[in-house]
Amino acid sequence: MPNPETVRPTDPYDAVLLVSFGGPERPEDVVPFLENVTRGRGIPRERLEVVGEHYYLFGGRSPINDQNRALIAALSADLEAHGIDLPIYWGNRNWDPYLDDVVAQMARDGVRRAACLVTSAYSSWSSCRQYRDNLEAAVAAVPDGLVAPRLDKIRAYYHHPGFVQASVDGVLDALADLPAEVRDDARLVFVTHSIPTAMNDESGPDGGAYLAQHLDVVGVVADAVQEATGVAHERELVFCSRSGSPRTPWLEPDVNDRLAELADEQERTGRRQAVIMVPVGFVSDHMEVAFDLDTEAMATAERLGLTARRSASASTHPAFVAALRELVLERAAAERGEPVERPALGSLPPVADRCPTGCCLPRREQGSANALQQ
């Protein structure tokens, strides 16, 4: 038995690995990046160049890499402030720093086991299982002669109190920015990445987890906002960033379509409609938020005469950063065989540390829910 005095709260981990999607850093990276994302799907280069226009609006640079750098800096500071000495590595699925290269470097550095934080909070094939598969592939690709580290993916954290608090604070700030005369009647329009309905049907161990998790956390956030303001705002969940064949059913409604319906309601009733778009499905303000919400959906709202604001994502909110630390320590304690509490708000239980074999199965017809933007 190990001496309790020698057991660190982070044992058995000697590193943290942040795992993300990746994104282009300059205009000449855009099409090669999109080719990485869509490899094997037969999408013509001409289509990729059209999609690339979204990135060129932002100088050919996705926001996601800079946001990951900021998150690493914030988490490093938080760990240091709590006396935790763990190096943080960062690897991407589709762009530099590539996950395979980073895991090989971890092996060279002597890392034996790492807790892996993914920049996606929910359960589905594209937001969870695919990352798990990426981690397994990166371990398998470690060059001969090196000892590959063991990589443990941290559980989905969409209803962790720290992630929820960051969302609540973002909504409260956005409400405060609205004109007083429309603030109390503002509708909370929660937005997440659409996925094919078949992918949702296979998400989680019993199916339907992706949608169920979002609907549950929408209620949690909206109820917390009501408690803080004393106002019961109408709330709903909508979707953005659909890609793939129009013949494949995806989760709906699209945020722009829903804004159009709300504008029609405003015209019928004569009541001025205000909307807070809440990016509850996104950890940071990457391309789905910067283009689909801040650019496209905001333009739709302005054209339709809707008063709209967009609340902040979790990003580097102190409560979210602290939650990531807590998730690492929670998993470390569990791996040591100690009893642990798994904080989770709402009606759904915490997601298991280890996904069941049949959880979030891939389906060929699902396409790629996050194929063309990050």
Question: Biggest β-sheet, characterized?
Answer: 4 strands, parallel
Along the chain, the helix and strand elements come as EHHHEHEHEHHEHHEHEHEH
Percent of residues in helices: 40-55%
What is the percentage of strand-forming residues? 5-15%
- Which radius of gyration do the C-alpha atoms yield? 21 Å
Mean pLDDT: 93
Principal-axis shape equals globular
Low-confidence stretches: 364-374
Structural class: alpha/beta
Distance between the termini: 46 Å
Instruction: Give the tally of β-strands.
Output: 8
Number of helical segments with 4 or more residues:
12
Strand order of the largest sheet: 2-1-3-4
Question: What's the structural blueprint in terms of helices and strands?
Answer:
Elements: E1 15-20, H1 30-38, H2 45-56, H3 64-81, E2 88-92, H4 99-108, E3 113-118, H5 125-140, E4 150-153, H6 161-176, H7 180-183, E5 187-193, H8 197-201, H9 209-229, E6 235-240, H10 255-269, E7 274-278, H11 287-304, E8 307-310, H12 318-335
Parallel strand pairs: 1-2, 1-3, 3-4, 5-6, 5-7, 7-8
Helix pairs in contact: 1-2, 3-12, 4-5, 6-9, 6-12, 10-11
What does this structure look like?
α5 links the parallel β3 and β4. Helices cover 43% and strands 11% of the residues. The protein has helices at residues 30-38, 45-56, 64-81, 99-108, 125-140, 161-176, 180-183, 197-201, 209-229, 255-269, 287-304, 318-335, and strands spanning 15-20, 88-92, 113-118, 150-153, 187-193, 235-240, 274-278, 307-310. It has 374 residues and is α/β, with parallel strands linked by helices. Mean pLDDT is 93; it is low at 364-374. The chain is globular. The N and C termini lie far apart (46 Å). The strands form 2 sheets. It has a 4-stranded parallel β-sheet with strand order 2-1-3-4, with helices on both faces. Strands 6-5-7-8 form a 4-stranded parallel β-sheet, with helices on both faces. It is built from 12 helices and 8 strands. α4 crosses α5.
